[in-house]
Amino acid sequence: MSHSTLSSAQRARRRFALSGLALGAASVATARGALAADAPAAPAQSAGPIVLHGASPRLTMHAIDTFHGAAATGLRIDFSRFDGQGYALLRSFTVNANGRADEPLLIDESYRAGRYEMLLHVDDYFARKGAQLPRPAFLSKVPVRFQIVNTAERIHLPIQFGPWSYTYSRGS
């Protein structure tokens, strides 16, 4: 079909489509050039304390049950601090409906540098949930050990666990 036999609406659509293609090609070329000129990507690391909307430094956690695909509601955790000899219990708590402790584990004057442990009672948790798992359980009490070095930083510990594995990381 020649250009002269196209209606004005068809010509407008064709110009729009061609201009969109040209704009997209220009964007890709610009992005490729910018990526090539950049230095190799470095790991994302904080150079200073993590500040969230004026919240004071604190330690928080979030537990996810990967077996059931839900927050670990009802999981019992013993929270301890290393005292030079061993881990001394600071408190025990039960994870709430959102998979979190009801309040920060450490905040204000309780937020101190040191070595800490959260002992997750995953065997009791799965038994209460009625999970059909082999007995004895592969995992029973799972220790999550970490250090707080800089008390100006906020630390959040996301924890994921199932009957056969667990993982945790330092979040903010």
Automatic annotation (TrEMBL):
Pfam families: Transthyretin
PROSITE patterns: TAT (PS51318)
Domain Transthyretin/hydroxyisourate hydrolase intervals: 59-171
Annotated GO biological process: purine nucleobase metabolic process
InterPro entries the record matches: TAT_signal, Transthyretin/HIU_hydrolase_d, Transthyretin/HIU_hydrolase_sf
Superkingdom of origin organism: Bacteria
PANTHER family given in the database record: 5-HYDROXYISOURATE HYDROLASE, URICASE AND TRANSTHYRETIN-RELATED
UniProtKB keywords: Hydrolase, Signal
Coiled coil location: none
Signal sequence, renumbered to the chain: 1-36
Protein name: Hydroxyisourate hydrolase
